[in-house]
Amino acid sequence: MSLPHPNLDQISLANVLSVLGDQTRLAVVGYLARNEGVAMSCGQFSEFGSKTNLSYHLAKLREAGITRTEVSGTSRLISLRRDDLDSRFPGLLDSIITAAQDLPALERLRDDA
Amino acid sequence: MSLPHPNLDQISLANVLSVLGDQTRLAVVGYLARNEGVAMSCGQFSEFGSKTNLSYHLAKLREAGITRTEVSGTSRLISLRRDDLDSRFPGLLDSIITAAQDLPALERLRDDA
DNA sequence: TCCTTAGTTCAAAATATATTGAACTATTGA
DNA sequence: TCAATAGTTCAATATATTTTGAACTAAGGA
User: Which CATH number is B10-100 given?
Assistant: First the structure.
């Protein structure tokens, strides 16, 4: 009943970077960062893509070790693995989130970059 | 006689991350970081791939704004755009380089991750 | 001038990633 | 029990990225 997540030593730098090197996933992470503490389900991200496409991107984030997804009924509760990432790659997530927040919303979403 | 480089505001976060999300390019950046101040030509990176393949990867790094490539005779002198990246995305490159240095050399090179 | 060296370009092939819609599962509320 | 809701999976397609080798350019040195 719970989804697979990599443990700390299975989180790879190159994979984290390539997974975050995508506008949609960067937008999701920015949104999570802006709403830390609030329980986020997949539906909250609907502005970033179709249901089926988000399912794909959210799985990539989980499999890379960037997010944690807890099953709760028919919902999934998604959160950033901040502490894990901070201990594995100190400063990395903070600098990415800061840079992502500085982008205008449109650029965060824009796909044609 | 000089190659095109993006200027500061043309450097995009998603692009930097996706370009660095590759073992070969991460290895090149780690090597540059470990040898800052030393003039590096393409040939120095031969351990990371074939001549033609490196030409491709080094162009990606340059086009993303991560490296600067100066033409010098038949050679190219390649360096990290540290100050530019630091001002655009504070802390990002440092955290990536630190994390990349902590990897064992084999993992830095491994392609089957 | 001729040869060598350093690196680029091109086009083809291989591989990986992203997007879609239809069909599906599981939970929940009426 | 039935229908609705939340999300997943599958297979197909579309698209992008990587890798390769052969042919190329431009600069130096003998």
Answer: 1.10.10.10
